[in-house]
Amino acid sequence: MSPAHTEVTAQPADLDPCGHEDHPDCGIRDVLDRIGDKWSVLVIVELAGGPRRFRELQRAIDGISQRMLTLTVRRLERDGLVHRTVYPTVPAQVDYRLTETGASLTHLVKALADWSLTHRAVIAEARHQYDQTHPDHDIR
Amino acid sequence: MSPAHTEVTAQPADLDPCGHEDHPDCGIRDVLDRIGDKWSVLVIVELAGGPRRFRELQRAIDGISQRMLTLTVRRLERDGLVHRTVYPTVPAQVDYRLTETGASLTHLVKALADWSLTHRAVIAEARHQYDQTHPDHDIR
Question: Do you know which Gene3D superfamilies this protein is assigned to (chains A, B) (predicted)?
Fold first, then answer.
């Protein structure tokens, strides 16, 4: 890897500051609302594998209550990330699948997951070093 | 845009299921821990603009307490995302800057922010439609 290449990858992205409530809209708060919601992300990841019924989602996602899953799929449907299909059977069958917008978000979730895996060893080493040099910092 | 192209972009990413605590490690839980923490993301975004002192970070990020900022920069330093520099002045000056690992994460945060902005109109329209057709769903 050439020094020039290292220099390029070390550059942070060109991000607008967003620490103030009244800052110009940069999309970061939206991101935090969306990706910060663990259940939404887990439902999106599960649906990346294909359409699922409600019970299948509930079984696939440890610890999610029926009420929380109901709210989560409604929010995702409301945002246009998930499509709910009702089949005219008796009893009616319902399944959920990602819309094109929802599917596009999975690629970013995957990029983040890949980033985590790629940097896991470096982060673990950094934590080890930090804990050695700051034995008094209880921040875990 | 050709139908073939639409089909490709509509494909979700190839993500392992991760709804179970004991699922094979896919990085998603790490992502949720990291990006799910609003203060960490806001500090990283602020530092994308360059090195900052503690007080500068505190001023830049609305609503963060001194204790929460202390914890947040320590966690980021422990993870090797932020480097803390102490200058041998009297009184000592301290600043914080992104490491190469931290800088690489800003590109993903930016990709997420860009995704939000790109899809904002579609999402707003989906919400409008949903609220029209489900006036009884109070999920906001």
Answer: Winged helix-like DNA-binding domain superfamily/Winged helix DNA-binding domain
